[in-house]
Write a structure and sequence with these properties.
By secondary structure, the protein is of the alpha/beta class. It has a domain of 209 residues: Rossmann fold, CATH 3.40.50.720. It contains 11 helices and 13 strands. The chain is globular. The model has no long low-confidence stretch (mean pLDDT 97). The chain binds UDP-4-deoxy-4-formamido-beta-L-arabinopyranose. UDP-4-deoxy-4-formamido-beta-L-arabinopyranose (WQD) binds next to helix 7 and strand 8. UDP-4-deoxy-4-formamido-beta-L-arabinopyranose binds next to helix 7 and strand 8.
């Protein structure tokens, strides 16, 4: 199948492009480089040997969406392109709603005009809010506590309403837990702009000497070692989950939401220790008060993905940290 990846040069998108090529599909990447770099395209060619079809555009530009779909026979779309920083969403809600929600509506309308009605949507476990009823299943109550989370839940609801209005649509919303890791080649990886908000890219930047120390946000949580616990999933496992989802859509119509996680919780301190094992570099830490909006623990019940998609995460914590270290140590300043 030919799959259009919006946000295709981003962290998750670029890894998913590789997994799709390796599964025998063709890809078209669409991106505006607002949170990625053109260099990713060269790296993808180096890894896959394929010069990927690329279309520079903003997902809110309906003429561009018509153009990319008119010139190609697209079988399905995986929609990654959206702003994704919790803190930024609180400061810039309209930017998040215009691009995260508005972009999704414009994409779906363009798809409808071109009779492309298979979509995999990049959602997030953030829709569960601070639920402590773990592991989280897909029918756990949703509770969004910031504009970013609201954009994710709204887009899921838009897809549900669209399918209810016209059953020719097929959609799966994938709720990511905490994506980390990098392609084992070390050629592509997470390259956050500015100061990393997320734990693992921050640790990686400490390890290569770009940051003096990691600040642990709270070590007084009701968890085994007092630090926050999350379900970290290797980005290649996540990518393969997207391949399974888009292939599932081709055979089984409908609308569904599916968790992509490992089902295992890992604490901040455990992640630091794993990174030290992988890099051989001691990570200086300072403990600070809890970060507003953070909960103590979150991990997935990943059984639905196994049942519905025949997919489970396989890569270990040590593989995650070894792959991040290879990427970061070979690219201390990311793609710059
Ligand atoms: C993980 C743990 C922090 C940084 C967020 C979004 C979620 C998704 C993934 C987009 C927590 C601790 C972190 C640091 C720390 N993003 N931490 N020092 O908050 O679980 O999820 O990113 O889809 O939607 O909410 O991930 O990596 O920010 O934090 O101690 O410098 O690491 O307190 O316990 P989070 P994270």
């Amino acid at each position: 199948m030919r799959i259009l990846l919006t946000g295709g040069t981003g962290y998750i998108g670029s890894h998913t492009a590789i997994a799709l090529i390796e599964a025998g599909h063709q890809v078209t990447l669409l991106d505006n480089f607002s949170n990625s770099k053109p260099a990713v395209l060269d790296r993808l060619r180096e890894i896959t040997g394929v010069t990927m079809d690329f279309f520079e555009a903003d997902v809110t530009d309906e003429d561009a969406l018509d153009a990319v779909m008119a010139d190609r026979s697209i079988d399905a779309v995986i929609h990654f392109a959206a702003p994704k920083a919790v803190g930024e969403s609180i400061a810039r809600p309209l930017h998040y709603f215009e691009n995260g929600v508005g972009g999704t509506v414009k994409l779906l309308r363009a798809m409808d005009r071109h009779a492309v009605r298979n979509v995999v949507y990049s959602s997030s476990a953030t829709v569960y809010g601070l639920s402590e009823d773990l592991p989280l299943t897909e029918d756990a109550p949703t509770s969004v506590i910031n504009p970013y989370g609201r954009t994710k839940l709204m887009c899921e609801q838009i897809l549900g309403d669209l399918f209810a209005s016209d059953s020719s649509w097929n959609a799966i919303a994938l709720r990511y837990f905490n994506p980390v890791g990098a392609h084992p080649s070390g050629l592509i990886g997470e390259d956050p702009q500015g100061v990393p908000a997320n734990l693992v890219p921050f640790i990686a930047q400490v390890a290569v000497g770009r940051r003096p120390a990691l600040t642990i946000f709270g070590d007084d949580y009701p968890t085994p070692d007092g630090t926050g616990v999350r379900d970290y999933i290797h980005v290649l496992d996540l990518a393969e989950g997207h391949v399974a989802a888009v292939e599932h859509l081709a055979n089984k119509p409908g609308y569904d939401t599916i968790n992509l996680g490992t089902g295992q919780g890992v604490s901040v301190r455990e992640m630091v220790e794993a990174f030290e094992r992988a890099s051989g570099v001691a990570i200086p830490i300072e403990v600070a008060p809890r970060r507003p909006g953070d909960g103590p623990a979150s991990w997935a019940d990943a059984t639905k993905a196994a049942r519905v998609l025949g997919w489970t995460a396989t890569r270990t914590l040590d593989q995650m940290t070894a792959d991040v270290w290879r990427w970061q140590s070979h690219n201390p300043n990311g793609y710059d």
